[in-house]
Amino acid sequence: MSALRSLLFNMAFFGWTALLCIGGIPLLAASAGWIVAGQRLWAWGVIGLLRLLIGTDYQVSGRENLPDGPFVIAAKHQSAWETIIFFLLIDRPAYVLKKELLAIPLYGWYARRGGHIAVDRKAGAKALRLLLEDSRRAIADGMVPVIFPQGTRTAPGTHRPYQPGIAALYRGLDLPVVPVALNSGLFWGRRAFRKRPGTIKLEFLPAIPPGMDRAGFMAGLETAIEQATDRLVAEGLSPEA
Question: What distance lies between CA 111 and its chain's CA centroid?
Answer without folding.
Answer: 13
